[in-house]
């Protein structure tokens, strides 16, 4: 069964070439760009003639649009800061040759940060459903952490998806600020509210889970930093949610309306 690989982009000139090179096994590549101002689309056209530029409608809509442009029903969705490992490429190739038995397949994603691959904390194994039959599965979600929802049971692959999420700690802080804003907005729209318990208990609990229960201590100082950053993420998310619904702040509003596209 042929497979189309899809990638959505916005100013991903620094990442895109390596991402597309890791898709050399795919039968087709579709790139959907949101009006990049760098050389993203020029790089994309070196690998495929299916490069579509359109306005940004949101993560879910853009990824479903990309899948709809494919010539084949089996889709592999890749973000520009990800790479398909050789082991995963071989596994997918063998699977499609023998015939998939599920509507979708999850792959374990491992993140490179602070000089090493992090295979501890909440970051691993970060299973992502990326190989799917568009006739039986589609992207779903709203503001943050979109994912593929399949009509039936899915299966897991063993090959890893390589994730280069952050250039450095400064980039990590910037990304975390954007995502916590979106997460708080989504919780607010869902009717969730935050109080002292959320702010006082959830962040330290997240640190203990990441550093002790999920083995962050085995990664030395990087594991300690990632565990602390994950706890900070939780704290920021609930603090921003509290700010949205607190009478002591400005009138409740929905932040992040100007947030732009991501590829991670």
By DSSP (H or I, 4+ residues per run), the number of helices equals 7
CATH superfamily of the largest domain: Spore Coat Polysaccharide Biosynthesis Protein SpsA, Chain A
CATH architecture of the largest domain: Alpha-Beta Complex
Taking the sheet with the most strands, its summary is: 10 strands, mixed
Strand content: 15-25%
**Into how many domains do the coordinates divide?**
2
Mean pLDDT: 93
Give the C-level CATH assignment of the largest domain.
Answer: Alpha Beta
SSE string: EHEHEHEEHEEEEEEEHHH
**DSSP strand tally:** 12
CATH topology of the largest domain: Spore Coat Polysaccharide Biosynthesis Protein SpsA, Chain A
Radius of gyration: 19 Å
Structure description:
The protein is built from seven helices and twelve strands. It is globular and about 55 Å long. With 264 residues, the chain is of the alpha/beta class.
């Amino acid at each position: 069964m042929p497979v189309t690989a899809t990638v959505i982009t916005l100013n991903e000139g620094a990442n895109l070439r390596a991402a597309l090179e890791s898709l050399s096994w795919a039968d087709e590549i579709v790139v959907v760009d949101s009006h990049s101002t760098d050389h993203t689309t020029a790089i994309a056209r070196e690998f495929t003639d299916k490069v579509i530029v359109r306005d940004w409608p949101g993560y879910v809509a853009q990824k479903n649009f990309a899948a709809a442009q494919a010539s084949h029903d089996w889709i592999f969705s890749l973000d520009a800061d990800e790479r398909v490992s050789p082991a995963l490429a071989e596994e997918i190739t063998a699977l499609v040759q023998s015939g998939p038995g599920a509507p979708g397949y999850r792959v374990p994603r491992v993140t490179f940060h602070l000089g090493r691959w992090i295979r501890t904390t909440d970051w691993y194994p970060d299973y992502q459903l990326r190989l799917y039959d568009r006739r039986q599965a589609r992207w779903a979600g709203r503001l943050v952490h979109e994912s593929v929802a399949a009509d039936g049971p899915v299966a897991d692959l063993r090959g890893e998806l390589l994730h280069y999420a952050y250039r450095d700690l400064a980039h990590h802080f910037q990304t975390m600020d954007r995502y916590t804003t979106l997460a708080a907005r989504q919780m607010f729209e869902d009717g969730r509210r935050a109080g002292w318990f959320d702010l006082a208990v959830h962040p330290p609990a997240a640190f203990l889970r990441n550093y002790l229960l999920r083995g962050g201590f085995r990664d030395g100082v990087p594991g300690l930093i990632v565990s602390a950053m994950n706890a900070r993420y939780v704290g920021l998310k609930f603090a921003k949610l509290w700010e949205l619904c607190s009478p002591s702040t400005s009138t409740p509003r929905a932040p992040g309306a100007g947030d732009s596209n991501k590829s991670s």
